[in-house]
């Protein structure tokens, strides 16, 4: 597939992914690569953005790139550290800031005749986050914007499409940052803004057809957004040669197996539901340590999946719903070694399966996957489903797992989730679930003293699951749902609500 694109060189800034998000929101495809692992530059690359960094260009081991490889060949935009790097390597000076600038600043002086700043308003707010400042620039660097305390807030190298900005246009606090990025990618780089969900679907299906041909693909589905969208794309490309497997590990939500299976069948997928509950319960018997439970579940899943995959004759490919954040190589701040994040959801391909891997979503962010899913006509029940961990209820039952505990938690969880939907709260929280605690508490029902289980309810708001806040659910809802749970689920006499944020807590309890 040839798609015009912007290359983002990552120097380790916390905001690098945001630059990519903003560029893609302009319907321009872009890829992030570590500054020390630059791919061969094809004709599709229309411009390069150099990210920020927690490092200083004055450090002996500061991350560097050979800018001559790009300059004069294509437009360049340095953001924060990227701008300092350009100035520093061209004979300018970068010094520790007299006043450290973190937070909001105003571009008091700006040259709106310059294409990069076209349309920006005087005193437009920008977001600064730097300990170093460019204190002087070479003669051929034209200063095009300043703030009260930073003279070189933006520059252009004369007669070249090479630009640097000290602030971060990618964060929303830079109120016209998106306009600046648009000026760069559209007007300066000449990108045509034709990368849309529709064009992604069309080219991906064509690519998959060509890549897979008449081969067979096997894929495990989980009911989640990523695997469902990935499978639908592969299905559109190769039809019944895609064999989907959906495993009931006995740790799913109440009725989830049946309802998800039905919606997959409705989508026309060639899907087989496999009831492996007993196998999983057996593997989990007596295990209490969360990691031991995760490992047992991962191992059992591979056994079941491998067995099922071997029933299909002549399979060559394994389809996976891997998404972009799982594959972006993150630049480690200490030293140039680049590490690849391990995949959270899929235990990885066991070597003995020897299948080629196809991952149609490995260039998309989560919200882009949802948009593609919508374009493909997937139902909201799949697209808007809360994230659910691979090990399922096993990590929401603290301590050992038994079928009876799973049953209790499924009942509680179903009342809770349905309640959230009934009150119109489900779409407002990022993830919610119930946790069965390994303790009992005293209660009184009628005239009788009870000594029964305690459940905790958890609901969080989040953007990506990396950080999260506890959701401030209305008291009336919590009161109703607590009543309903205690009245309807036998064996539970107390409900508590988790008010911990992440960090320092995590979303799951195990
Ligand atoms: P934590 O608990 O780390 O969770 O704040 C962040 C997100 O990851 C999910 N999670 C998992 N997903 N396998 C998964 O597939 C796991 O072992 C696992 N542990 C946590 C969690 O539900 C949340 O969405």
TrEMBL record:
It is an enzyme of class 6 (ligase). Its EC number is 6.3.5.2. Keywords: ATP-binding, Glutamine amidotransferase, GMP biosynthesis, Ligase, Nucleotide-binding, Purine biosynthesis. The active site is at 80 (nucleophile), 168, 170. GO terms for cellular component: cytosol. Transmembrane segments: none annotated. ATP binds at residues 222-228. Pathway: Purine metabolism; GMP biosynthesis; GMP from XMP (L-Gln route): step 1/1. Residues 195-385 form the GMPS ATP-PPase domain. It comes from the Bacteria. It catalyses: XMP + L-glutamine + ATP + H2O = GMP + L-glutamate + AMP + diphosphate + 2 H(+). GO terms for molecular function: ATP binding; GMP synthase activity. Homodimer. NCBIfam families: guaA_Cterm, guaA_Nterm, PRK00074.1. Catalyzes the synthesis of GMP from XMP. This is GMP synthase [glutamine-hydrolyzing]. It comes from Larkinella arboricola. The gene is guaA.
């Amino acid at each position: 597939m040839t798609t015009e694109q912007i290359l983002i060189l990552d120097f380790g800034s916390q905001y690098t992914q945001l630059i990519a998000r903003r560029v893609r929101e302009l319907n321009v495809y872009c890829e992030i690569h570590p500054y020390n692992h630059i791919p061969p530059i094809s004709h599709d690359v229309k411009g390069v953005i150099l990210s920020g960094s927690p490092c200083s260009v004055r450090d002996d081991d500061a991350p560097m790139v050979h800018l001559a490889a790009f300059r004069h060949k294509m437009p360049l935009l340095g953001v924060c550290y990227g701008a300092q790097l350009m100035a520093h390597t061209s004979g300018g000076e970068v010094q520790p800031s007299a006043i450290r600038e973190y937070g909001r600043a105003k571009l008091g002086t700006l040259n709106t005749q310059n294409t990069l700043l076209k349309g920006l308003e005087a005193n437009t707010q920008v977001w600064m986050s730097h300990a170093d400042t460019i204190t002087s620039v070479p003669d051929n660097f034209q200063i095009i914007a300043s703030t009260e305390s930073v003279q070189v807030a933006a520059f252009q190298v004369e007669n070249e499409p090479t630009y640097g900005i000290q602030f971060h246009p990618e964060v929303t606090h830079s109120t016209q940052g998106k306009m600046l990025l648009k000026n760069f990618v559209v007007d300066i780089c000449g990108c045509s803004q034709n990368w849309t969900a529709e064009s992604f679907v069309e080219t991906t299906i064509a690519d998959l057809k060509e890549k897979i041909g008449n081969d067979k693909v096997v894929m495990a589905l989980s009911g989640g957004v990523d695997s469902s969208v990935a499978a639908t794309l592969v299905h559109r490309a190769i039809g019944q040669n895609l064999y989907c497997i959906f495993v009931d590990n006995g740790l799913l939500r109440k009725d989830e197996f049946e309802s998800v299976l039905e919606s997959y069948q409705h989508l026309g997928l060639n899907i087989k539901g496999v009831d492996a509950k007993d196998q999983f319960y057996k593997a989990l018997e007596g295990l209490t340590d969360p990691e031991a439970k995760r490992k047992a579940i991962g191992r059992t899943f591979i056994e079941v999946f491998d067995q099922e995959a071997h029933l299909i004759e002549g399979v060559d490919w394994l389809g996976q719903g891997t998404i972009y954040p799982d594959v972006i190589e993150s630049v480690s701040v200490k030293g140039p070694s680049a590490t690849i994040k391990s995949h959270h959801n899929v235990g990885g391909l066991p070597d003995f399966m020897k299948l080629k891997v196809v991952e149609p979503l490995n260039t998309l962010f989560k919200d882009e996957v949802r948009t593609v899913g919508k374009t493909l006509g997937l139902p909201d029940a799949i697209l808007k489903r809360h994230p659910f961990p691979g090990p399922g209820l096993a990590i929401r039952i603290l301590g050992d797992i038994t079928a009876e505990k799973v049953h209790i938690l499924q009942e509680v969880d179903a009342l809770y989730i349905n309640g959230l939907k009934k009150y119109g709260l489900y779409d407002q929280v990022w993830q919610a679930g119930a946790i069965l605690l390994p303790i009992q508490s005293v209660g009184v029902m009628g005239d009788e003293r009870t000594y029964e289980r305690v459940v905790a309810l958890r609901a969080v708001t989040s953007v990506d699951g990396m950080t999260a806040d506890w959701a401030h659910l209305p008291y009336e809802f919590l009161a109703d749902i607590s009543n309903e749970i205690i009245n309807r689920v036998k064996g539970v006499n107390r409900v508590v609500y988790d008010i911990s944020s992440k960090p320092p807590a995590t979303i799951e309890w195990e």
